[in-house]
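Case study.
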Amino acid sequence: MSHKKIYEYAVDENMELFVLIKSADVRVAKNGNQFIAFNFSDSSGEISAKFWDASPADTAAYQPGKIVLLKGKREIYQGNPQIKIYRMRLVKEGEPNDPSLFVQKAPVSKNAMEAEFNQAIFEITNPNWNRIVRFLLKKHQEDFFSYPAAKKNHHAFAGGLAFHTLSMLRLAHAVAHEYQEINAPLLYAATILHDLGKTIELSGPVATQYTLAGNLVGHIVLIDEEVVKAAGQLKISLESEDMLLLRHMLLAHHGLLEYGSPVRPHLLEAEVLHQIDQLDASIQMLKGTLSHTQPGTFSERIFGMDGRNFYKPLAETEQPEQE
Amino acid sequence: MSHKKIYEYAVDENMELFVLIKSADVRVAKNGNQFIAFNFSDSSGEISAKFWDASPADTAAYQPGKIVLLKGKREIYQGNPQIKIYRMRLVKEGEPNDPSLFVQKAPVSKNAMEAEFNQAIFEITNPNWNRIVRFLLKKHQEDFFSYPAAKKNHHAFAGGLAFHTLSMLRLAHAVAHEYQEINAPLLYAATILHDLGKTIELSGPVATQYTLAGNLVGHIVLIDEEVVKAAGQLKISLESEDMLLLRHMLLAHHGLLEYGSPVRPHLLEAEVLHQIDQLDASIQMLKGTLSHTQPGTFSERIFGMDGRNFYKPLAETEQPEQE
Amino acid sequence: MSHKKIYEYAVDENMELFVLIKSADVRVAKNGNQFIAFNFSDSSGEISAKFWDASPADTAAYQPGKIVLLKGKREIYQGNPQIKIYRMRLVKEGEPNDPSLFVQKAPVSKNAMEAEFNQAIFEITNPNWNRIVRFLLKKHQEDFFSYPAAKKNHHAFAGGLAFHTLSMLRLAHAVAHEYQEINAPLLYAATILHDLGKTIELSGPVATQYTLAGNLVGHIVLIDEEVVKAAGQLKISLESEDMLLLRHMLLAHHGLLEYGSPVRPHLLEAEVLHQIDQLDASIQMLKGTLSHTQPGTFSERIFGMDGRNFYKPLAETEQPEQE
Amino acid sequence: MSHKKIYEYAVDENMELFVLIKSADVRVAKNGNQFIAFNFSDSSGEISAKFWDASPADTAAYQPGKIVLLKGKREIYQGNPQIKIYRMRLVKEGEPNDPSLFVQKAPVSKNAMEAEFNQAIFEITNPNWNRIVRFLLKKHQEDFFSYPAAKKNHHAFAGGLAFHTLSMLRLAHAVAHEYQEINAPLLYAATILHDLGKTIELSGPVATQYTLAGNLVGHIVLIDEEVVKAAGQLKISLESEDMLLLRHMLLAHHGLLEYGSPVRPHLLEAEVLHQIDQLDASIQMLKGTLSHTQPGTFSERIFGMDGRNFYKPLAETEQPEQE
Amino acid sequence: MSHKKIYEYAVDENMELFVLIKSADVRVAKNGNQFIAFNFSDSSGEISAKFWDASPADTAAYQPGKIVLLKGKREIYQGNPQIKIYRMRLVKEGEPNDPSLFVQKAPVSKNAMEAEFNQAIFEITNPNWNRIVRFLLKKHQEDFFSYPAAKKNHHAFAGGLAFHTLSMLRLAHAVAHEYQEINAPLLYAATILHDLGKTIELSGPVATQYTLAGNLVGHIVLIDEEVVKAAGQLKISLESEDMLLLRHMLLAHHGLLEYGSPVRPHLLEAEVLHQIDQLDASIQMLKGTLSHTQPGTFSERIFGMDGRNFYKPLAETEQPEQE
Amino acid sequence: MSHKKIYEYAVDENMELFVLIKSADVRVAKNGNQFIAFNFSDSSGEISAKFWDASPADTAAYQPGKIVLLKGKREIYQGNPQIKIYRMRLVKEGEPNDPSLFVQKAPVSKNAMEAEFNQAIFEITNPNWNRIVRFLLKKHQEDFFSYPAAKKNHHAFAGGLAFHTLSMLRLAHAVAHEYQEINAPLLYAATILHDLGKTIELSGPVATQYTLAGNLVGHIVLIDEEVVKAAGQLKISLESEDMLLLRHMLLAHHGLLEYGSPVRPHLLEAEVLHQIDQLDASIQMLKGTLSHTQPGTFSERIFGMDGRNFYKPLAETEQPEQE
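After joint prediction, the assembly is written out as follows.
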């Protein structure tokens, strides 16, 4: 058996490999039999597959979180990658058994990310913002580095939340560098915190669901709540301009009321935060989709990009030398 | 001199009466001279008037909060009531001098309102909601009974906030009575608190402006902040379903994201709260406008009702006997 | 055989009971065989079920309006209740055979409803409105008390039209009581008539469809036509303010042009009518949905509430004492 | 004194001519004095003018409907034609005094229009539609030929209603000729009736206002009412398909619910009626505006065309020979 | 074997006939087997059909462009016509084998269309527009007379592009005749060219797809490109008013930015072009749909008409005599 | 006389300085006299002022492009800076007389900008894109470095077009550096060209108006035309993928059809181009507005930011050390 990963197989190639069951929906087919709609994953990505005529034993055995040995064929169905299953079984003694090895990970290590965050925090020269950021990052540290940034669409992988935050921080740095009028400490502090409420909104890195607090309150107000409580514990006045500015940045970062911000941006830095959030999310979604698209064709339609499909050019991309 | 109030004069009647200067905007006319755009008020309502060719002495003397003796004529200008000023001067020794006697007031006394609120609180049988409501009502008691419910449009008079809340509470009572499935204590608790953040969002009962917190955070998140802090002080867990339900009610009460709620209603009671809020605000706006409209004509266009104008029928309204 | 009703069975419990075939759609499955998509009902509500591999004899026998003896299991499929069919047959001699016993009914008897309507009509002190209301209610009496209020979504049960009208009348009474400015007779008259055009728009209480007049003219203009013809027969001038007010109430009751009203509300009472119509429809839809939702979970998405799903709290609701 | 008409004077030319006062709004200038905002007209069109520092005698004398001798200068103000008034006075004995000679008229005589309508009615071979059309045209004949088609924007001149109807009838004829599938009698009948409700919606050909019925019911439902009453008098069943089709045509002719139709078009002929209505209205509005626009420039923004301005080319238009 | 065409068979009649495979989508059914979703056509129109449990040999054999002998039954499925396939095979030697005989064609011959276009070109008296039109029509002549006007919805048949253009030209003629202010040569020139870019946007008359240029540039800018290049070759100045007017007509013909026009119409003729384009497209879509609808019923919902369904009256249409 | 610039004077300070008349609109005041609405400028920015009771000699003398000696006072009127004019006259012999010294300029010199553009062009390694960019930049060089980027709102100063392009190029560089998947040469080429059509759309750096081509064709299609013609002259095939990609980038850069792009972005790089265009435009608008806003207050509402006003914090911004 080779050791190729899911996306190292070519389309129409036969596959034999270990994969993690990411999700497993049992449904009834139009012929009355049950089938299982799987999402499998390994470190190269996720892929869907259907298991027809599933017996009760099958539906009991193939639960999310299990690792299986899979034989099948890589296919394209209506523009999307999927696997046609020939045979599958649970792993045995002595075969790979650690789910954490079968999930896509942020392309930067946790240590490297932490180092960059620390450098940015060092540049948050305003003491109130600095203390709030350090307090909350410490409080939610573990989840921050393991959660995805979203249930799906963009950065939906383990560590995606921290990695999305890091990418934005790099953009924030570039933008603050280019436009001296921007209050960089404010922009950095808000960038780091802006999606931290997702550690409360979402259930965790695996089989990610919205929590009740996520559904009824939402991550924007949840991070505001965290800031309010942190200020109380750190004896920072919530009536100071500093705190109103920081909270405004977080509350307004979705940009439009229709997107769930209770206020629209009314600070230069809040507008910038919103726009670099969009920019990073868009690029990440497109990167992910285009990585599985054939050159010279259009991708499937992307829900998070208003249902547009994107063209992957034939021409090989020659990058200019980067300094 | 008679003792008639502003709206006791007929259109085109000459007036002589004491009024309060509610607001006084100094502007430059197209001929280059300054004029003052006044809003005058007494207990019968507000009315606008223009003072042409104002000298520096005039603009210095006629400040908001002052009471003046006014001679003029009641007029209608493009459908709106206004006064043509003949002459005016500040009051002298011995003349009326207490601004609080010249503002429109809630049609129910503060004592009567408090009694009704207490009765409603008695019906909030859930101890967590009961304690939060009593804590916050006590904390903001003075402002709650003196603030307007809005800068303009609806309930824009002293005590309007409490009165709007009271009207809604009566509607909430009727609706909960009619539909047994409604969780009445939850609806009552949220009704009482829903606009309490306006005591922080607005600057006060006179010359009402938005505060910085009002502009950058907004009254919906401000009341959420108050609940979060109150729960901390009262040792009530913010993770309990009770508290998530109550906060959701408050966060969702504008109904639509476009109206500034960070979440839409996802509870039966939250939907009801939103709709009775709209109903009371609409009726109050229409009452106010129609009270100054001639029977058989259409009112001016009302901004808060999508710019619609409303017809005041000629036919005298005969109320049926109410039990 | 027990005598339990559909919704008295627990999820996953085996069922054996008599039900009415409310609707029966014959479709082709992806394997090329026909199946029947049923809606069954009894007095506890409606539920769907699929009958696979239906023979021509099956599709001929199982017609809407028939009563069958059904064996199966109650299930939840993607959040919605359904029945897995084991076996079914038409009823035999001596078994229950009256369809009217197997439909959901308004929770108030026709007699009780009539008494309340008569009381309200008594309070319509304007003679023109009073005569029009009595004339049209008498003309459409039978249909008014047997039709549903809508094809689906809200009050979609026999007698739903009268019951929805009654609920609104109670709200109208409460609102008119609270705000003395409201012309109560006008509000009551329009409330009673507002949806009466649905007796012409819809085909009837069973297998409800839109009629050609319903599709091409619509219930709003159909009730206007009824009022025009009634005025002719009762010798009431259509040019009187009375009649223009009443017709405006009916024409404007959907509130927005986009919802099919040819004019928006331009009377205080027309605005109130629209809002209490929405309020009652919303509560009724949510009541229906939540009655089948597990505590601690979210309901399915509700089309008539903009696709929102609603949370049913775990906490038992304790109603305050109602006077 | 020359006998030139308003639009026969060049821009910046001094004028001396008789004009009709079409409307006269008395307003207060920013210097506190009254002025009159006039619309003058003669058979060449309308033009606005301001009369500064109007005395009470002026405002009493210069009423709509009066004819005046005017001296002034033709000007362009912000792209719109206007007159700078030097002097004006009411006409004296022996001077022109018939207002009907000073209004713009339909470019086709009433007799010629009647002949064309009669020819079209002859082609309405369906007896029900034929009788309804003849009945209603006769009932409203006088107003139909004297009313404008709208308060402003398009065909806002005496006889505009009949002329707009006639232009559409010609388009309807051309379209029915080109597409044989169209039911021409239905299209012609509905075209003739579609705006006839405006004779009830509007107050008359001069100083045109909306009537109370126009505001509360609207011309679409008013013509439906006329058809309902006519059918009653002519003993034509309102339940026949014929009558439902005709009423649907009239109700749907605004095309979109947002434009006030209570139903959208669901007949081929209803869709065609809506589109030729739009086409004729657009062309007429643009014709009117461009007739006063300088070649090589853009017109003022046109409210009825979504605020767009239109370019009038420099190049002389050479019409091809028309057969 | 009869020689009836697809739509000459009645619903539920058994069929045996030759048809062209217009498209053939291989999909996986819910039971895991493959099936083919066909569109068949002959000169009477198109119809869909499903071929269940397709073997690899089937999917290999039944490719678009092949002609097959088909046995089956005409059916109606959810309001749309389809065929239930009993048996099918590829044609043999000696059986019909020319795909061009099995496609729907424009109802006017190519020669007749050319004659009408030449007459219109003769009326384009402006030499610049005349030369551009003749140059481009000659360049794209073959495609212009063989392409459909759209992938689907309206005029989706061979020659549909020229036929749609011709129908519009006839409307343009009628409108220019009725309103003398219209610059007829400009309207005719732009009408002829307005959709010519579709010969570059679409792949061809069979198995029509969007080209890469179609997807990335779109037919509106593609025809603009053609005009720019033609002007270069014909030495006509692109800065002349003539050329700006013509290009504006083409760029603005979708009417709204949302529909892909980079500018909205700012010429009378551009507005007219847009509206007659819509009118012809609407009528053609409705004609096509209603030709397969049973009298007295509603059609399926039509995507290109905002999802509305249309009623086909029972009453036989009697056309008036056309001169 | 001091040598202070407009914005070096404090609010309410008396001013005496030379300024350029940027625009001068003659209007009629409500008292019937003419006045001139000026925009004055010097290198510190623009400011408005009204000149009351202007004589014909005044309106003749004070034309755009003239330099005047102005005495007045700096004021704030409804949140916007303006000057109250005491006295003004045209400059005399020996006084400053070069308009180019009185306009706001790009904050980077033309030479420095050219150097950066050349460096970027060097990184456009694709020869087709490289040649097109160099060809068009050379063709429009002079205008590119002197035009504003817009009539108003953002970068509305001389050289603004090149400076806006340069700022975006720096952002493009930072983004391409951060995300290796981006085709940097394509992004750079399109960034440089994206607004170059404005040199044809706008009339010039002074008294900027839209040209006829700007109004009827628009800058997006105008740059596409330039690319088409350039490709013809450089013998580059317009059918190559290279050229379709580049044209798509330019056509799609407004992001939404509603904003005038005939196609939405369907390339990763096209999406990025659109977003960094928005980001730079937003920041530039906010910088400009906030530079005239008092700390601790909100700016006036900004049209180009959906009418939002922005808060300028009290707290002094301390920039972190930038490397």
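Observations recorded in class. The interface with chain B takes residues 28-32, 212, 215-216 of chain D (CB under 8 Å). Residues 318-323 of chain D have pLDDT under 50 and may be disordered. We will return to this complex in the next lecture.
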